[in-house]
Write a structure and sequence with these properties.
The protein is an all-alpha fold and 390 residues long. Helices cover 63% and strands 0% of the residues. Helix 12 packs parallel to helix 14 and helix 15 packs parallel to helix 17.
Length: 390
């Protein structure tokens, strides 16, 4: 496995694909390292494509923000309108106490964003009992809302503030997390209190909530499963790894999908060893691919020959190809086979970009039938029948 300090360097790798892989590494780990965001902002300066910079900023959306970085984000929000929302997303998930000193910067940002920042700053002045009451009020307020309308960045900001309180009473989070079990299994998920409890369990590193969080991974409610996965990663102890490994063989694909996310997020040799044991025991090919993906995301150099064989068996499964290629680069494995993988991935990326250009061209010009032998409007220089019309 590569260390976290080594992985930081790969955020600045010349190849954008490797930069994203390294960024995913820290996003999966739910890292609170304040050194990460400055590196991401530096990586954004390595290219002038807005979409590429936006991908990097999205990966950093919940990274820890230092007071210096908060000031820098405020400056960029004011000066870089194209990426204003991307910088704002990072600020809105920051620890509220970091934003307190930024009052002088609020006058220069859009009113809607300013109100949201002020909402977060107001949490710092609340007593712990008032803060917990506000937490419960928010849970009631968002009940039955569409998930897309729920401001989970505020939930995260609140959880970060609650976790700082030294006078916090013992919270029965396991009971709240299991609320989903009392509902109608056929009803649409609409009560976010249990998802919020998952978030808080993670920030409090509440090991007593681990059994309930593992039950959630089996719940078949993706919103809950995702939040439970992140919480288990944040807790991140050997107890969590042991519990996931023990339950893995007793559960089905839905649990496996999020359980491997837990193992991939806990970037320790202990998690790597557990994943290796599961990989070596697995007989189902889908399960093998899932665990191979996890090993790659842990930057494990073990079992790479077996993963190469698995890649052949699955006819070069694209998801596995991407992470296996990146893992080889991270571990300094550079041979003809790895270069061929890069060429294949580059060709796929280029085909995807051509398709996007074609769709954009079709959306902005009058409807007109394109002859199969005419030049493709995506600009590739090929005939339409050999390019986007293939």
């Amino acid at each position: 496995m590569r260390t976290r300090d080594v992985m930081k360097q790969f955020i600045l790798h010349p190849e954008h694909r490797i930069r994203l892989f390294a960024l995913d590494y820290f996003e999966e780990a739910q890292s609170d390292d304040e050194e990460l965001l400055p590196i991401v902002l530096k990586a954004c300066e390595m290219g002038d494509q807005t979409d590429a910079r936006r991908e990097l900023l999205y990966g950093a959306r919940e990274f820890a923000v230092s007071p210096i970085m908060a000031s820098e984000l405020f400056r960029r929000i004011k000066d870089e309108s194209a990426l204003q929302l991307d910088y704002a997303r990072i600020l809105l998930s920051a620890h509220p106490h970091v934003l307190v000193g930024a009052d002088n910067s609020l006058s220069s940002i859009p009113a809607t964003l300013r109100r949201k920042i002020e909402q977060r700053i107001s949490l710092v002045s609340l007593t712990t009992s008032a803060l917990l009451e506000e937490w419960r009020r928010i849970a009631k307020e968002i009940r039955a809302e569409e998930y897309s309308a729920v401001d989970f960045s505020f939930v995260i900001a609140m959880a970060r503030e609650i976790s700082r309180r030294s006078d916090l009473p013992k919270l029965a989070l396991s009971e709240t997390i299991r609320k989903y079990q009392d509902g109608d299994p056929n009803a649409w998920y609409e009560d976010y209190e249990d998802a919020m409890a998952c978030v808080l369990a993670g920030y409090l590193k509440d090991e007593s909530a681990v059994p309930a969080l593992l039950d959630v991974l089996d719940s078949d409610i993706d919103i809950l499963q995702e939040r439970a996965m992140y919480a288990l990663v944040r807790i991140g102890t050997p107890f969590v790894v042991d519990a996931v490994e023990k339950r893995f063989g007793e559960s089905k694909w839905g649990f496996h999908n999020y359980a491997t996310g837990v193992l991939a997020g806990i970037k320790t040799s202990y998690s790597e060893a557990a994943t290796l044991r599961l990989f070596q025991k697995a007989t189902d090919i889908e399960e093998q691919v899932m665990l191979a993906d996890t090993l790659c995301r842990l930057t494990s150099a073990a079992e790479i020959p077996a993963m190469k064989e698995l890649l052949e068996q699955t006819d070069h499964n694209l998801d596995l190809l991407e992470v296996l290629y990146a893992n080889c680069v991270i571990n300094g494995i550079d041979n003809r086979e790895v270069q061929q993988w890069k060429e294949t991935l580059d060709e796929i990326d280029e085909a995807f970009e051509r398709r996007l250009r074609f769709e954009k061209a079709m959306a902005t010009r009058p409807k007109k039938k394109i002859g199969r032998n005419e030049p493709c409007p995506c600009g590739s220089g090929k005939k339409y029948k050999k390019c986007c019309g293939a």
